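BACKBONE GEOMETRY TOKENS
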Amino acid sequence: MILKGRAIKYGDNIDTDVIIPARYLNTSDEKELSAHCMEDIDPTFVGRVQKGDIIVGGKNFGCGSSREHAPIAIKASGVSLVIAKTFARIFFRNSINIGLPILESIEASDEIDEGDELEVDLDTGVIRDLTNGKSFSAEPFPPFMQELIKEGGLIPYLRKNK
């Protein structure tokens, strides 16, 4: 699966409290969650994110509480992928469970700039920065997990394959 989008860049330790502030956890409505995604760290995010955009973060992306609302808010905002140096393990698992692709790449995180146009092959883990002409590698998911992501997450995957 090939994804293309514009990079929206953040730094290290982006926690679930800034991805979706706790004051909005009284809903599970994806549209409502996406309306407040990243607002405490980047009030411009909701107004500028476009369908297919790719978040690029630093170390420990998604740290903090185990709330599944965080990857749901990101995915519902139109983001197609998150690339980071490392992910908090619970955020990693929650992202896969809801069908939000994530890739770890130190080099991509360091070299990609805000607004760069990216092309990512989820099957091979190749990340191409079309703006600066550089390519980076990430470990692709095994076929089972790729299928789970393509189906939109664990629940849709299980419904299809029961």
